[in-house]
Write a sequence for this structure.
C-alpha cells in the first residue's frame, strides 16, 4: 500500500508539475498494479490512457472498476463508457449496442444510454426498435415533462417514419395530458385533430391553450377559435355562446362581441343581442364601428323590440359618430 501511494504521488508530480505524461503513466500503472482495488489509481491510469487513446488499456481499467462496482447507476455509467469506445473509436456498433443494453438493465431511465441506443437504431433504420427504446424510457420515469417529450418522440416516429397518423395522434394526446404547457406538442396535436376532423378534441386542446395563455389576447383568440368550431363544425351554437360569454367576462373584445351578436341574431335572441350591441358600443375604439354599432342597436330596438324612442337615440349617436353614415341618416328622415 505504501509503495502504491508513493508511485501515485510521483505520478501526480510528473503529470501536474513536470508535464511528463509518459512518466506519470508509468507510475499510475505501477500504483494500480500494487493496489488494484483502489479506484483512485484505476481512474488516474485510465485518464492518461484515454488521453493517449489507448483503448485496450482503457477498457481493461473500466473492467477493473466494474468488478468492484455495485451501484446500478455506476454500473450503467461504466457500461455506457465501454459502449462509447466501441461505437465511436473501434467502429463496432453491435458490441456497442450490447454494452448499452447491459447498461439499460442497470439503469432503465439513463438518458445517455437511451440516446445512444436510439441513434444506433436510427442509423440502421430500425424504427420499431426506436419505439421500444422510448417506451422503456417512459416506463422508467415519473417526471411528467420527460414523459411528455418521450411520448412526443414516439408520435414523431409513428407519423414521419412509420406513416401511422392515428397512432401518432394518440401518442401526442398522451404527451399533451402529461404536460399541457408544451407548445410543440399542442401544435402538432391541433394539426392532426384538424386533419382528422376531430373537432371536439380540437376544441378541448384550444380551451386548455387559452387557459394557459400568457396574455388576454391569446386567450381571446383560443376561445374564439373554439366558438367558431362549435358553431360551424359541431352545430353547437349554445356552447359557442357560452364560450364567448366566458371570455367576454374576462376581457370584453369587439371581435368577441361581434361574434356573439351574430350568434344571438341567428337564434332570434333579440334582448340578449341588444345588450351585446350596447356593450360593443361602450367598447368602441374605431371610427367605422363607432357608427355601425349604434345603428345596428337602433335597428334592433326599432323592429324586433318595438322601442322606437330608444332606437332614435341610437340612430342619432351613429350620426354623431359619423355624420356621413347614410344608413342612420336615412332612418332619421
Amino acid at each position: 500500500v505504501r509503495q502504491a501511494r508513493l508511485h501515485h504521488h510521483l505520478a501526480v508530480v510528473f503529470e501536474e508539475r513536470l508535464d511528463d505524461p509518459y512518466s506519470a503513466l508509468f507510475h499510475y500503472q505501477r500504483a494500480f498494479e500494487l493496489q488494484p482495488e483502489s479506484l483512485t489509481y484505476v481512474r488516474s491510469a485510465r485518464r492518461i490512457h484515454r488521453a493517449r487513446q489507448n483503448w485496450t488499456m482503457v477498457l481493461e481499467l473500466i473492467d477493473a472498476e466494474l468488478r468492484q462496482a455495485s451501484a446500478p447507476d455506476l454500473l450503467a455509467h461504466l457500461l455506457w463508457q465501454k459502449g462509447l469506445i466501441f461505437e465511436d473509436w473501434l467502429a463496432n456498433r453491435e458490441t456497442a449496442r450490447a454494452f448499452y443494453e447491459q447498461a439499460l438493465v442497470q439503469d432503465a431511465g439513463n438518458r445517455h444510454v437511451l440516446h445512444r441506443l436510439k441513434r444506433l437504431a436510427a442509423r440502421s433504420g430500425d424504427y420499431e426498435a426506436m419505439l421500444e427504446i422510448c417506451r422503456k424510457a417512459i416506463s422508467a420515469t415519473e417526471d411528467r415533462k420527460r414523459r411528455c417529450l418521450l411520448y412526443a418522440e414516439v408520435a414523431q416516429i409513428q407519423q414521419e417514419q412509420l406513416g401511422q397518423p392515428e397512432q401518432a395522434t394518440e401518442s401526442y394526446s398522451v404527451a399533451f395530458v402529461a404536460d399541457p404547457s408544451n407548445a410543440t406538442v399542442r401544435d402538432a396535436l391541433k394539426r392532426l385533430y384538424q386533419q382528422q376532423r376531430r373537432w371536439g378534441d380540437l376544441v378541448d386542446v384550444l380551451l386548455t391553450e387559452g387557459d394557459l395563455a400568457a396574455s388576454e389576447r391569446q386567450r381571446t383568440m383560443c376561445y374564439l377559435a373554439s366558438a367558431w368550431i362549435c358553431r360551424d363544425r359541431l352545430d353547437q351554437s349554445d356552447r359557442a355562446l357560452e364560450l364567448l360569454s366566458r371570455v367576454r367576462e374576462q376581457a370584453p373584445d369587439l371581435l368577441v362581441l361581434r361574434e356573439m351578436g351574430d350568434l344571438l341574431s341567428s337564434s332570434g335572441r333579440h334582448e340578449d343581442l341588444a345588450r351585446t350591441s350596447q356593450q360593443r358600443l361602450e367598447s368602441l375604439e374605431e371610427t367605422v364601428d363607432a357608427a355601425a354599432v349604434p345603428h345596428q342597436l337602433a335597428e334592433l330596438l326599432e323592429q324586433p323590440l318595438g322601442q322606437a324612442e330608444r332606437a332614435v337615440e341610437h340612430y342619432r349617436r351613429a350620426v354623431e359618430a359619423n355624420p356621413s353614415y347614410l344608413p342612420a341618416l336615412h332612418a332619421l328622415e
